Predict the 3D structure of the following.
Amino acid sequence: MSIMQQIRDYFERITPMSDQEWDFFSSRLVRQSFPKKVMILKAGEVEKYLSFAESGMLRYFLRRGKEELEEITYDFSFAGEFASGYSSLVTQLPAPFFVESLTPVTLWRISFEDLQEVYAHTQVGNRIGRYAAEQLFLEKAKRELSFLAESAEERYLHLLTGQPQLIRQIPLKYLASYIGVTPQALSRIRKRIS
Protein backbone atom coordinates (compact mmCIF):
# COMPACT_ATOMS: atom_id res chain seq x y z
CA MET A 1 0.00 0.00 0.00
CA SER A 2 1.37 3.41 -0.94
CA ILE A 3 2.00 6.06 1.69
CA MET A 4 -0.61 8.31 0.05
CA GLN A 5 -3.20 5.54 0.44
CA GLN A 6 -2.17 5.14 4.08
CA ILE A 7 -2.66 8.87 4.63
CA ARG A 8 -6.04 8.76 2.90
CA ASP A 9 -7.07 5.77 5.02
CA TYR A 10 -6.02 7.69 8.15
CA PHE A 11 -8.10 10.71 7.18
CA GLU A 12 -11.06 8.53 6.17
CA ARG A 13 -11.15 7.21 9.73
CA ILE A 14 -11.93 10.84 10.61
CA THR A 15 -14.37 11.51 7.79
CA PRO A 16 -15.30 9.92 4.46
CA MET A 17 -14.11 11.81 1.41
CA SER A 18 -14.84 11.67 -2.28
CA ASP A 19 -12.07 11.08 -4.81
CA GLN A 20 -12.47 14.71 -5.89
CA GLU A 21 -12.00 15.99 -2.32
CA TRP A 22 -8.99 13.70 -1.78
CA ASP A 23 -7.42 14.85 -5.05
CA PHE A 24 -7.90 18.51 -4.11
CA PHE A 25 -6.46 17.98 -0.63
CA SER A 26 -3.63 15.57 -1.51
CA SER A 27 -2.40 17.70 -4.42
CA ARG A 28 -1.41 20.29 -1.83
CA LEU A 29 0.56 17.92 0.40
CA VAL A 30 4.34 18.11 0.18
CA ARG A 31 6.58 15.37 1.55
CA GLN A 32 9.69 16.61 3.36
CA SER A 33 12.35 14.65 5.18
CA PHE A 34 14.67 16.03 7.83
CA PRO A 35 17.75 14.46 9.42
CA LYS A 36 18.13 13.97 13.14
CA LYS A 37 18.66 17.10 15.33
CA VAL A 38 17.34 19.68 12.85
CA MET A 39 15.26 22.67 13.92
CA ILE A 40 12.03 22.36 11.95
CA LEU A 41 10.75 25.58 13.54
CA LYS A 42 12.79 28.14 15.47
CA ALA A 43 11.51 30.56 18.10
CA GLY A 44 10.75 33.86 16.38
CA GLU A 45 9.65 32.21 13.13
CA VAL A 46 6.06 31.88 11.98
CA GLU A 47 4.80 28.30 11.48
CA LYS A 48 3.91 27.89 7.82
CA TYR A 49 2.68 24.27 7.78
CA LEU A 50 0.30 21.83 9.31
CA SER A 51 2.19 18.54 9.16
CA PHE A 52 1.41 14.88 9.57
CA ALA A 53 4.33 12.70 10.64
CA GLU A 54 4.94 9.69 8.43
CA SER A 55 7.94 8.64 10.51
CA GLY A 56 10.22 9.83 13.28
CA MET A 57 9.91 11.86 16.48
CA LEU A 58 9.77 15.60 17.11
CA ARG A 59 10.44 17.55 20.29
CA TYR A 60 8.84 20.88 21.22
CA PHE A 61 10.77 23.05 23.67
CA LEU A 62 11.35 26.51 25.08
CA ARG A 63 14.62 28.13 26.07
CA ARG A 64 14.89 30.24 29.19
CA GLY A 65 17.46 31.62 31.56
CA LYS A 66 19.98 34.42 31.45
CA GLU A 67 21.49 33.23 28.22
CA GLU A 68 18.56 30.95 27.30
CA LEU A 69 20.68 27.89 27.99
CA GLU A 70 17.99 25.98 29.88
CA GLU A 71 15.70 23.99 27.60
CA ILE A 72 12.26 22.93 28.74
CA THR A 73 10.69 20.14 26.71
CA TYR A 74 6.92 20.41 26.73
CA ASP A 75 5.75 18.03 23.99
CA PHE A 76 6.65 15.31 21.51
CA SER A 77 5.08 14.21 18.21
CA PHE A 78 5.42 10.69 16.86
CA ALA A 79 4.72 8.93 13.55
CA GLY A 80 1.01 8.87 12.78
CA GLU A 81 0.29 12.16 14.54
CA PHE A 82 -0.22 15.77 13.53
CA ALA A 83 2.89 17.85 14.11
CA SER A 84 2.91 21.62 14.04
CA GLY A 85 3.69 24.77 15.93
CA TYR A 86 -0.07 25.04 15.87
CA SER A 87 -0.56 28.22 17.92
CA SER A 88 1.80 30.04 15.56
CA LEU A 89 0.11 28.50 12.52
CA VAL A 90 -3.40 29.64 13.42
CA THR A 91 -2.36 33.12 14.57
CA GLN A 92 0.41 33.55 11.97
CA LEU A 93 2.49 35.14 14.73
CA PRO A 94 6.08 34.18 15.64
CA ALA A 95 6.42 31.02 17.71
CA PRO A 96 7.97 31.39 21.19
CA PHE A 97 9.25 27.79 20.99
CA PHE A 98 11.35 25.41 18.90
CA VAL A 99 10.43 22.19 17.09
CA GLU A 100 13.35 19.79 16.60
CA SER A 101 13.69 16.37 14.97
CA LEU A 102 14.89 13.82 17.54
CA THR A 103 15.29 11.19 14.84
CA PRO A 104 15.19 11.38 11.07
CA VAL A 105 11.66 12.62 10.33
CA THR A 106 9.40 12.51 7.29
CA LEU A 107 6.47 14.91 7.26
CA TRP A 108 3.55 15.40 4.89
CA ARG A 109 2.93 19.13 4.99
CA ILE A 110 0.27 21.51 3.80
CA SER A 111 1.03 25.22 3.81
CA PHE A 112 -1.12 27.70 5.68
CA GLU A 113 -2.24 29.22 2.38
CA ASP A 114 -3.13 25.86 0.83
CA LEU A 115 -4.92 24.85 4.02
CA GLN A 116 -7.10 27.97 3.72
CA GLU A 117 -7.92 26.93 0.12
CA VAL A 118 -8.87 23.43 1.26
CA TYR A 119 -11.08 24.93 4.00
CA ALA A 120 -12.75 27.24 1.49
CA HIS A 121 -13.37 24.65 -1.23
CA THR A 122 -14.09 21.36 0.54
CA GLN A 123 -16.22 20.21 3.43
CA VAL A 124 -13.73 17.44 4.19
CA GLY A 125 -10.98 20.02 4.71
CA ASN A 126 -13.00 21.72 7.41
CA ARG A 127 -13.68 18.41 9.14
CA ILE A 128 -10.01 17.38 9.02
CA GLY A 129 -8.90 20.82 10.20
CA ARG A 130 -11.36 20.71 13.06
CA TYR A 131 -10.21 17.20 13.99
CA ALA A 132 -6.54 18.27 13.98
CA ALA A 133 -7.36 21.28 16.17
CA GLU A 134 -9.42 19.14 18.54
CA GLN A 135 -6.67 16.53 18.87
CA LEU A 136 -4.03 19.15 19.58
CA PHE A 137 -6.31 20.81 22.14
CA LEU A 138 -7.10 17.51 23.86
CA GLU A 139 -3.40 16.63 24.13
CA LYS A 140 -2.68 20.05 25.64
CA ALA A 141 -5.55 19.73 28.13
CA LYS A 142 -4.44 16.20 29.07
CA ARG A 143 -0.91 17.43 29.73
CA GLU A 144 -2.07 20.38 31.83
CA LEU A 145 -4.33 18.13 33.90
CA SER A 146 -1.52 15.62 34.41
CA PHE A 147 0.65 18.35 35.98
CA LEU A 148 -2.19 19.31 38.30
CA ALA A 149 -3.33 15.84 39.31
CA GLU A 150 -0.43 13.39 38.92
CA SER A 151 3.00 12.86 40.36
CA ALA A 152 6.10 12.89 38.15
CA GLU A 153 6.20 9.10 38.46
CA GLU A 154 2.62 8.80 37.21
CA ARG A 155 3.37 11.14 34.28
CA TYR A 156 6.38 9.02 33.37
CA LEU A 157 4.37 5.78 33.58
CA HIS A 158 1.65 7.18 31.31
CA LEU A 159 4.24 8.26 28.77
CA LEU A 160 5.95 4.87 29.00
CA THR A 161 2.73 2.91 28.51
CA GLY A 162 1.57 5.13 25.65
CA GLN A 163 4.69 4.85 23.47
CA PRO A 164 7.11 2.38 25.14
CA GLN A 165 9.20 1.58 22.07
CA LEU A 166 9.65 5.25 21.25
CA ILE A 167 10.21 6.60 24.75
CA ARG A 168 13.32 4.46 25.08
CA GLN A 169 14.81 6.42 22.16
CA ILE A 170 14.32 9.83 23.77
CA PRO A 171 17.30 11.13 25.75
CA LEU A 172 16.79 11.10 29.52
CA LYS A 173 17.27 14.87 29.87
CA TYR A 174 14.35 15.54 27.48
CA LEU A 175 12.06 13.04 29.24
CA ALA A 176 12.96 14.53 32.62
CA SER A 177 12.20 18.05 31.41
CA TYR A 178 8.91 16.87 29.88
CA ILE A 179 7.64 15.39 33.14
CA GLY A 180 8.98 18.31 35.18
CA VAL A 181 11.90 16.77 37.10
CA THR A 182 15.70 16.71 36.95
CA PRO A 183 17.45 13.88 35.10
CA GLN A 184 18.64 12.57 38.49
CA ALA A 185 15.06 12.43 39.82
CA LEU A 186 13.94 10.62 36.67
CA SER A 187 16.76 8.09 37.15
CA ARG A 188 15.43 7.42 40.67
CA ILE A 189 11.89 7.02 39.33
CA ARG A 190 13.07 4.57 36.68
CA LYS A 191 14.97 2.52 39.27
CA ARG A 192 11.88 2.39 41.53
CA ILE A 193 9.56 1.10 38.80
CA SER A 194 11.94 -1.36 37.11
